[in-house]
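User: For a benchmark we're assembling, each entry needs the component sequences followed by a predicted structure for the full assembly. Here are entry 17's components. Please fill in the structure.
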Amino acid sequence: MLITNIKFLVNVRDTFHKLRGADLAVLPVVEDTWLRIKDGEIDSWGSMSTLHIVGHEEVYDANGGTVLPTWCDSHTHIVFAAPRESEFVDKIRGLSYAEIAAKGGGILNSARKLAATDEEVLFELAKQRIINLIRLGTGALEVKSGYGLRIDAELKMLRVIRRLKEWSPIPIKATFLGAHAIPMEYKDNRRKYIDMVIDEMLPLVSAENLADYIDVFCEQGFFSQSETEEICNAGIKHGLKAKIHANQLNVSGGVQAGYNVGAVSVDHLETMSDVEVEILSRADAPMATLLPTAAYFLRMGFPPARQLIENNAALVLASDYNPGSSPSGNMNVVVSMSCIQMKMLPEEAINAATLNGAYAIELEDEVGSITPGKRANLIITQRIPSIAYIPYSFGENLIDKVMINGRFFE
Ligand code: NIG
Ligand code: FE
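Assistant: Structure for entry 17:
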């Protein structure tokens, strides 16, 4: 298949590397091109002046539209049983996320609903969410457990994620988030729950090969820095790498924990001090994943994207799609919001949501840029005047077609 009349071919790279600091602002774009797809992969591209159509080749005329690599959403919780819009109203009436959580709402509310829902139903709900996300241009995904919080229910969630991996046309990575909250019945004996995560859940997750990563919600009222490190190190012994929920509501030690355990990424980072920024500036630091729609939905201050970029952090953007803090997985909105509220340049936001997103789930050899040999997972937009128009036109749907593995996704 050949795509012709591409106005802007975005994030074109023969070789690629993780983007830190100033590198994020460099987004390679080629104008007036064709793009050839072979066996579901990107094969080659060239200037329209060199266009040569092979006899039997299928041709799609992009008609002056723009082609980008699909978004890589490296942080989601899309396996859940039900939305939580009543908590949304509670928040409008004045309760905070932490207050809702403390009275058994929040994550524990989702856990109750998940326990009462069959695996088959959970699978169908998540599958439909993924279909909707692909239509919005997402072409790689990470999905977490963490609404189980019991051995059987955590395994149920991870088995749903495994089935999603088998079914899905886009690559999915699975994360075990047994340490998402302390269940009510362990409130006075948190050690017992942590032991259960480490000594009972992890060996089972590992025996069935159900996860790629381990995650902990490192937060006041949830898990401390030392507990986070202990749980991550236990996961590492089972062959998992760490991705941590850090510094969402408080300066929690999550960034330090992520650095100490060699995490792939530390995610959220709404509440940061200079100490955390300095840690993320180091060459061997975890990637810094920002989730601006969660900050927006919870009416929090946004993470300090500019300060992180100026200090050489490897920034990533993701949706955090979940029923409590970001009931949307629309990466187009994430990219816009990052430019509007965190003053990221369009180039920085697109890089952070594509190539760096791929690095954050170790799929950089498969997705994240227009590179021969990577999957042909592409967004084809309507005609747009410039790359900056993508985040500028927030809330508009610019997507004309999404291609996954070389096929148009309907
Ligand atoms: O990433 N912060 C912890 N976990 C999710 C929210 C989960 C929920 O509220 O259900 C997050 O924001
Ligand atoms: Fe999250």
